[in-house]
Amino acid sequence: MARKFNLKTLQKKIQKEIEEAKTLKDLDEIFNLYLGKKGEIVKLFKKIKSLPKKKRAKVGERINKLKDFLFEKLEKKSEKIKKKVEEEEEKKEFFDITIPGKKPEIGHLHPLTSVKRKVEEIFQSLGFEVVEGPEIEDEWHNFDALNIPPGHPARDVLSLGKTFYLKKGGVMRSHTSSVQIRYMEKNQPPLKIVVPGKVFRAEATDVSHEIEFWQLEGLMVDKDVSVANFKAIVEEFFKRFFEKEVKIRLRPSFFPFTEPSFEVDVSCVICGGKGCPVCKNSGWLESGGAGMVHPQVFKNCKLNPKEWQGFAFGMGLTRLAMLKYKIPDIRLFNSGDLRFLKQF
Amino acid sequence: MHSFEVEEIKKSGKDFAIDIDVLPNRTDCYSHFGMAREISAILGYKMKEEKWKLKEENFKAKDFISVKVKEGCQRYTARVIFDPKIDQSPDWLRERLEVCGLKPINNVVDVTNYVMLEFGQPLHAFDLDKIEEKEIIVRKAKKGEKILTLDEEEYELDKEILVIADSKKPVALAGIKGGKNSGISEKTKRVLLESANFEPLIIRRGSAKIDLKTDASVRFSHGLDPNLTEIAIDRAAFLIQEIAQGKVAKGMVDFYPEKVYPKKIKLEKEKVESLLGIKIAPKEIFRILKSLGFKVDKKFVVEIPTFRRDVSFQEDLIEEIGRVYGYEKIEKKFPKQTLSLPNKNLDLFWENMTKDILKELGFTEVYNYSFVSKDDVEKFHFEKEAIELENPVSASFQFLRPSLIINLLKNVYKNQNFFKQIKIFEIGKIFKGEKKEKKVLTCLMTGETFFEMKGTIDLLLEKLGISNFYYDSYRPTPEATKISVWHLKRSAEIKVDGEEIGFLGEISKKILDAYQIKEKVVVFDIDFEKLVNFASEEHEYQPISSFPAVIRDISVLLPKKVLVEEVLNKIYQAGGENLRDVDLFDIYEGEEIPEERKSLSFRLIFQAKDRALSSKEVEEVQNKIIEILEKEKEWEVRK
Lengths: 344, 639
Known about the structure:
The structure holds two protein chains of two kinds.
Chain A: H1 2-5, H2 7-20, H3 24-35, H4 40-47, H5 53-92, H6 111-125, E1 129-130, E2 136-137, H7 139-142, E3 171-172, H8 177-186, E4 191-200, E5 212-222, H9 227-242, E6 248-255, E7 258-267, E8 284-293, H10 295-300, E9 309-316, H11 317-325, H12 338-341
Chain B: E1 5-12, E2 15-21, H1 32-43, E3 66-69, E4 73-82, H2 91-99, H3 107-119, E5 123-127, E6 135-140, E7 146-148, E8 154-156, E9 162-165, E10 170-173, E11 177-178, E12 190-198, H4 200-209, H5 215-222, H6 228-244, E13 247-248, E14 253-255, E15 263-266, H7 269-276, H8 282-291, E16 295-296, E17 301-304, H9 314-325, H10 346-360, E18 364-365, E19 371-372, H11 374-379, E20 399-400, H12 405-415, E21 423-432, E22 436-446, H13 450-463, E23 469-473, H14 478-483, E24 486-496, E25 499-507, H15 509-514, E26 521-527, H16 528-534, E27 550-559, H17 564-575, E28 579-588, E29 597-606, H18 615-630, E30 636-638
Parallel strand pairs in B: 3-6, 18-21
Antiparallel strand pairs in B: 1-2, 4-12, 4-13, 4-14, 5-12, 6-9, 7-8, 9-10, 10-11, 15-17, 16-17, 19-20, 21-22, 22-26, 23-24, 24-25, 25-26, 27-29, 27-30, 28-29
Helix pairs in contact in B: 1-8, 2-3, 3-6, 4-5, 7-9, 8-9, 17-18
């Protein structure tokens, strides 16, 4: 009796049809033909009634298996066809990747902010605290305490001085060194600080001179801080800042608030010391002034110079930014020109 | 690398001129002799010193001249020379002066210049017979006195200028230049040589005042060794004797009331090592100091020659040792670290965070000058508070900026032709009144952007951990109304816990016109120090409810003048804890709506933390909200 159903033959037939189907529509037709409401499988189920009761269950089970089998085959085939169609569509598609990208409007930090952050981060990792101070100073902190007595050329209002004086007293700080004093007046050594800040100079501006620019002051005081220590710290700083090996050179100099005093040169980061226009063919870049804190400066801060010693240095943050980004004109920093600022 | 820098080496005839940048505290090296001493110390060569001896006549100098110093002069040394043959100098002398950039004049004047180059002591030669009553007086000039200098320039003098005078008139600008009336000429029979030590400050200021800088004034301005006058005057007299056959009177007239003697400093070898960070053998220290002209005894007590006016502390000696020994020989050495971490600078931390937030919101940071013009100060009505400079570089930089807004507006003017919209900010100091300086944050956006800027502030403050902030309407006094730089209606005070921390608003038309700005500009200005006080890093995660949210929209038709805040407050009040959020998504005025009225549309989001809300619950709350809103006169709610 089972022959009457011929399930095996039917299975082979449908399987073949599924295999030969090319489109999703073909599959739909197959589905309707066999598994639809009026499809062959439904018909078979109806025929079961004509079988003897004993066999009904067995045949029913076989038909169900066939049904499941077909569902599975159809599913697989349909996936396969879909994938193929997608692949073909992708192949046909034309897409021009050379069309310019759409940049979202973003904000920009001033190049000095970025340089300042990098410098602060390096010194913080070397154990220095970042400290700030006032931009309007009294003459004591800007001059006297730094061993620049009244009558010193640096204090002249005319010609030599370059310091901005306020009509009602006080000055615009001409260096961040004033913050050394403020810090030492309030804190006991050992101390390690750096002071980033704006400084002001009354002079004519040009590509390398500004009336207002940024400096970084450094100060380290302890029992036996030495010139050798300064060399190590400053070299390490420049190495990390420029991310390359550099050499440091100290030249004798004179500042009223340090003794000994040096000019600090760093090997040219552009040419590596071979000589180029940036270092004026010397192989060295002037990077700032430094020295060992003058005993009189300690006394002025009520610290005992027999007990404490240390180094202080000042460098131009604006100058570092000019070197880092190859900016040829210092006046661009305060220009507020968005064509400049949006490059950073 | 040991002393000074060579600026330039020039060939001049058969000779070379080396231009050296001598440090300002080393006046002992403003001369060939001083440089030779320096070089001998560095290279370790012995110095060759020329031997010479001055022959004096029997008549005495003091019988021919007297010196009276009123002020400004630590030492005045004079010599008298009879019958010099005034003539051209010999070739060697002329050539040497020319290489050094000096013009030969006559043998007597040339000798004074030559000795200045040789020893660094400026000298001057007078025609003794032109000095009235044979009296030299060093005094300040009287107001209105005039002098014609050797180069035929006339100067009008005042009480700040030190002069050399006779009993009647000034005969020289002390330490700067000689007068024509007393100069050496072919007819000169008797020469008065001056070798003096004038006070640096007086010479410097005098020279700046009359705007005349000379080889002499530069040397005096930096301060010279008073003991040098004697050597220099003898040397000059000797040369005049040699070259011009002058007869030198016996002795010198010497005003020198307070003689300067060498100081002594004890040098501790341990300090040398500890300060430089390198061990230098005592023998080497001894050699270096001696070669520089210091006397050192066995206990390392160092006698400082008076020409080294720059050395007065032990540290000064250590510098001498270090630089001659060579800084390049000092090996770098990391400091012995005590394990202590640097304190975090909170001001900077918040400043950096603020900058980053504004940058993320599309603003570009600018750094502007701290200076503004008088005109700016007046436009912004800061006349009473603004701080003025004594010595501005130009009129546009005459005052310290009393607000960051001024220069930010100038930025807009400068950039408006290149960019459609400008979004900029600055954090910096402003200066005004008694408290003088204050750090502020000012942020600017062009266009009709009041609410974008308000949203920017909301985001900024939330990110800085400040939640209890709100805005208050700007209610200027009638007086302030007249001069306000802000739009009177479109501006608000920014407050935290009842304290005003800043201001938000549109800039008034009047100001925009004054700065030639085409578009509207919205600015907020925040007292950064106050902001930092309220900022907090505390931030806690809020659990996300896993229960579904129910959304309902309502519109309220009400009078135009009702503030949105009023409506929101009522909704929240009625909504209770399950009303999670209310968004205003539309404000409508105009067609289909009666005049003087507006329609506000809100999206209400209901969600409970602990369960799914039933539609019945939501309905109840929504009805309560509507009920409360409609209690108000002329408020109508549409679902």
